Amino acid sequence: MAKAKSLLADITASVRNHRPGFRAWFELLPDAAQQELGSVREAFHAGKMPGVQKRALARAVMEAAKDRGWKTSGIQGVLAWLDARNDAAS
Predict the structure, then answer these.
(1) CA-CA distances (angstroms) from residue 66 to 3, 48, 70?
(2) Closest CA to 81 of 27, 19, 36, 21
(3) Using CA atoms, how far apart are residues 71 and 4, in angstroms rounded to an integer?
(4) 38, exposed or middle or buried, with CB in 10 Å at 0-12, 13-18, 19+?
(5) Which of 52, 69, 80, 81 has minimal CB crowding within 10 Å?
(6) Phi-psi bin for 52: left (phi > 0), alpha (psi -120 to 50), beta?
(7) What is the pTM of this model?
(8) How far is 79 from 25, CA to CA, in rounded Å?
(9) DSSP states of 7-55 as a string?
(10) CA distance linking residue 27 with residue 55, whole number of Å
(11) Domains of the chain: which residue ranges?
(12) By CB neighbour count within 10 A (0-12 exposed, 13-18 middle, 19+ buried), where does 26 fall?
């Protein structure tokens, strides 16, 4: 009897990127903007913003980015970015 393939192997073999070449909103920003926003996220994760709700921070990030002419995604994308713990997961 043939050995059954693992679930991971099945899924990996069948994955098709929905949008090949897609880059997240954060990756499209200039390097300086990425560094500035990265420091905001790091401060949030380090507990340097006590009492600040994540959704409120995401809205503030979106507003500040808009004021600077930077494009962001919607609130869910900014929330996901805030959840990321390092730049590799942006």
Answers:
(1) 55, 24, 5
(2) 27
(3) 47
(4) middle
(5) 69
(6) beta
(7) 0.72
(8) 12
(9) HHHHHHHH---SSTT---GGGGS-HHHHHHHHHHHHHHHTT-STT--HH
(10) 21
(11) 24-89
(12) buried
Digits of tens for pLDDT over the chain (90 positions)? 556 678 998 888 888 767 777 788 999 999 999 999 999 999 999 999 999 999 999 999 999 999 999 999 999 999 999 999 764 444
> What number of residues does the chain have?
90
- Could you give the CA distance from residue 59 to residue 50 in angstroms, rounded to a whole number? 17
